[in-house]
Design a protein that fits this description.
Layout: H1 2-39, E1 41-47, H2 55-62, H3 65-68, E2 71-77, H4 81-89, E3 95-98, H5 101-108, E4 115-122, E5 128-131, E6 147-149, H6 156-167, E7 177-179, H7 187-192, E8 198-201, H8 205-212, E9 216-220, H9 221-225, E10 231-236, H10 237-242, H11 244-262, H12 266-273, H13 282-294, H14 306-318, H15 328-331, H16 335-343
Parallel strand pairs: 1-2, 1-3, 6-7, 6-8
Antiparallel strand pairs: 3-10, 4-10, 5-8, 5-9
Helix pairs in contact: 2-11, 11-16, 12-13
Amino acid sequence: MAGKFKEAKVVMKKFVSWLVLLTIIAVITLSLVGCGEQKLTKVRLNEVTHSVFYAPMYVAINQGFFAEEGIQLELTTGQGADKVMTALLSGQADIGFMGPEATVYVYNQGKEDYAVNFAQLTKRDGSFLVARQPDPNFTWEKVKGTTIIGGRKGGMPEMTLEYVLKNKGIIPGKDVTVLTNIQFALMAGAFTGGTGDYVTLFEPVAATLEQAGSGYVVASVGQESGEIPYTVFSAKKSFIEKNKDIIQRFTNAIYRGQQWTANHSPEEIAKAIKPSFPDADEKILTAVAKRYKEIDAWAENPLFTEEAFKRLQDVIQLAGELDKRAPYEKLVTNQFAEKAIETVK
């Protein structure tokens, strides 16, 4: 009897030992998982609109490049550069993704903690001129005497449209009416509701209208305007100074997205960005990615050159929205882009 009791005691000790060991392993595992989660830094990014035009960014998100750089991205959509800049300056966003014209306006207003551009994503206008009927023989002369829904006055889409029109000898307000009183997010709805003869739209909205038979792409604004630093990533000067490591890791992820996009087909790009456009047909996404590749819309790297900044201000000045030119060295930093290009392989 005593022997059996002793044997049971030994078994119990072994059981307790195993239980303690398993508990220790569980605690260590949970600690390691916890540490892994702590390494992810939350970054609040406010994008100007949600468009396939920004495919390299969505590639970086969905391919896990941000996570691999230790960033947990919180993405919101501002619907307009003015709203993105408001979110940035008020502290509702860490990084803004918008047209760099907004940074020029803020700097010229004398803001002390102004926004600085640190990475470029697109290098030309991504909007398309949409007509009510198919027009394979479209020329810009045809817009004379018509009305175009052009976007917010002083915004890059509207100013680039004006730049193209003026380069074609077509004067807004004289030869063509450009509507600037319709909010960016409502432009497609206004057009399908009967306003205007033409509208400038980004993808996949333009392709969706084509699929529904409500509108037809007749021209690329970006193809006509030439290269312009159209959409860039910006952050407040103070945020960049205090968070250089975050900005570097963010830029690394963007550059990886740019490289991936440059080296993959429209079909592969469509698959990669599909999680960011769950309601979009993959065939439309493929067609749109092909369209953007054809007009060479995406920058190959995040560098924002002085020449590009000069051209940007030429466009703003031609639109009558620039009182004085802002200094490139104040509003642009390439230190993070240069390091990304040097270190990311």
